[in-house]
Amino acid sequence: MSPRYSLFPSFFLSGFECSTFDWKNVGRRDLTAELQHYEHADEDYAMLGPVGIAVAREGIPWPLVDHGLGNYDFSCIDPFLDAQRRHKILPIWDLCHYGYPDGLDPLSEEFVVRFAAYARAAARYVAERAHHGPLFITPVNEPTFWGYMGGEWAWSAPFGRHRDYRRRFTSMLARADIAAVKAIRQDLPDARMVHIDPLIWVVPPRDRPDLAEAAHSESFDDAYLAWDIIAGLRHPQYGGSLETIDILGFNNYSFGQMEYREHGPHKPLEPGDDRIRSVCALVEEAWAKYRRPCIIAETSGRGVGRSGWLNDIATESLAAIRRGVDLHGICLFPAVDMTDWHTGEWLHMGLADVERLPSGHLMRMPCAAYIDTLHRWQLKLERATSLDDDPYSDPIDLDRIARIAADHGMVPDADWS
């Protein structure tokens, strides 16, 4: 039997916050600019190689580059392309991270058509400048979660406040995603798609058994709505298929396991709650539905908890691999810290924290303890803690990682959080 190699040149991945939502009473935000990532692109990418990471999620800001009538200006991402080439980092391009152009109705047919045209143009632009293939693309980031935050909780545009609106919005995002995949593959048939949404688990309050059905529906129906449409399992008239969904990306944070609230958002379960499920179980359950290659597409702890979180998520991921899950990597997100969307406070969850200097510049400060823990896992799984001159020459042997998981008896822990 031939060896199984990872889709990616390193088992650990990372990425940069790139939201461009129209946010509550603030208006349009560009979190890439707030992070000063445009200016610090070379420094940010230079950080990845020495910590052994060869892949980074990166965003193209649809609302900022699409000026209508097929007029696009992608020059803002040129610093990223230059830095990726210089430091030999493979990008996963995120084409829509919670933002769409002003004046566009997200429930209209125009939304689907315009997004597909933009996605085709964006894919062409980066493909012509890519230093390594194939192209990896996330057409719409977290359509199910965006459905909640923009369609039911009114955090961001389109500021919906009802479950029915949320489901319609999520479905339209999935339709636009499918149209984008088809448009991109007209020019780039070998492009790979990474479809990302959170792993969630919702339970009823202990004193409200009457809410058990609603909680169950969110865990097993709503959580999979976008993936099901893109995979063609629901609404097949939209043209989805398993080939379209291609690669699954599971985002996992502690607040993804929640106690149901009738008017949302739900309340995160506290560590030690006996209703928490192991991440291994959530990964296995989601993967088994589609049986496509997958990654943990975002995960991180906070502050001094980052090292412990990495130990837990690596153990859970290896336990899932022992169970047969086709897992190709873990994305430690973000590479550079990000702010709380609501308060603006730095979350201290990146491989590097930031400090604002008197000049206004954001200085990057790597988190030594977190990186030390990463290096220990890299030595165990990849045998290297930094990239060499050609990070694409020695693909990650997934069978070897599976043997390591078996040899170390990696098992899930429901109390891991």
Automatic annotation (TrEMBL):
InterPro entries reported for this sequence: GH
The organism's place on the tree of life at top rank: Bacteria
Name of the protein: Beta-glucosidase/6-phospho-beta-glucosidase/beta-galactosidase
Species name: Sphingomonas tabacisoli
